[in-house]
Each structure stands twice: as structure tokens, then as C-alpha cells.
Amino acid sequence: MTALARLIQRFKQLPGIGEKSAQRIARYILRIEHEDAARLSEAILEARSRTRTCRRCGNLTEDEFCEICKDPSRVQTEICVVEEAFDIPLIERAGAYQGLYHVLGGVLSPMEDVSADELRITELVERVKNEGTKEVILATSATTEGETTALYVAGQLKGMGIRVSRIARGIPVGADLGLADEVTISKAIRGRESLDSGERT
Length: 201
Ligand SMILES: [Zn+2]
Description:
This protein is of the alpha/beta class. The chain is 43% helix and 14% strand. The protein folds into two domains: 3-50, Helicase, Ruva Protein, domain 3; 53-196, Dna Topoisomerase Vi A Subunit, Chain: A, domain 2, CATH 3.40.1360.10. Strand 1 and strand 2 form a beta hairpin. Helix 1 (3-12) crosses helix 2 (19-31). A zinc finger (C4-type) spans 54-69.
């Protein structure tokens, strides 16, 4: 196999990239300067090796703690629970939320054999216990798995004396956060509905 064929093969392994797109990107690579090709591969390696997950919330960061956890101006008593770290910039861009986050690392899925102990749910419960949390907002997708996960997490937080809410239905049923625009996301957060409320003692 030639080097070019190998490159096309690699591109085809990327999400959303088929044969045609893989060829188009390869054609572009062959046209750029050697120096730019080196920068591109360096950027891939660097992002891969420097990026880690925040020890507290699971967001992506280059340090022990992420920018949001390190920011004292964030509301420390609210935690917004998301499926993936990539959901955080979407909610941040909408600008309707000032609290902290918690990344689950996926959703419960019997089909794909993802069980509760593979998600960062215990870590969330620990945080609520130790951080003086007053509200947890469940911002998982409006898919069946997202709803099931939200209900499960709410169940785990029951009786802890905090408000547990679910983002409102601005997000179309069956859609994940990545498909929603900023206005929809901020409406969904502002219009969140309480699943369990109680005063923390
Ligand atoms: Zn963090």
C-alpha cells in the first residue's frame, strides 16, 4: 500500500468522513507546504498528549482542574450534568448558565452495554455531598437513553436535600445538544423543570 493510500485509509476512520471526503482531504494535504503538513501532524499529537480530564468535573483541560472549576466567579452551588465534555462549550456559548458542570462520560444504554458504574455518577453524588450543592440540572439529550439516564441520576440524588431539575423541552425530542442552537439551549436551561426539590439542611 502506498503512503497516500494509507493516509486516505486513516482519514476514512474519522467520524463522518467517507471515501470522497478522505480523498478530498488527502488532495489538500499533497498541495500544502511540507512545513504546514508538519504543523498539522504536530497539532494532532499535541492536542492528543496534552488534553486530559478535569479531576473535579471531567471537562477537558490541560491542567489538573479546568477553567470553569478554577473560576471563583462561577456559582459554586449549581452543577449542570452533561453527557460529554463537548456539550460544555455549547451550553457556555448560550450564556444562560453560570454554575459548574459534571461530565457523565456517556448515557445508560442497554443496547451498547453501558451500565451505571461506567458513568461518573458516584463522583457526582460525592460532589453533591461535599461541595454544598443546592441544585443539579440534568442536561442529558432528549433521546430515550438521555431521559433514562436523567431519571436514574435523579434517583441517585433523591433525599439529598437538593433541587434536581431537567432542562426544558426546548430541545427537540430525539436530538442531542450538538444539534440545538444557542437560543434553544438557553431557553431549555431557563425553563428547566424540577424533578425533586428540597431544602438542603
Ligand atoms: Zn472542571
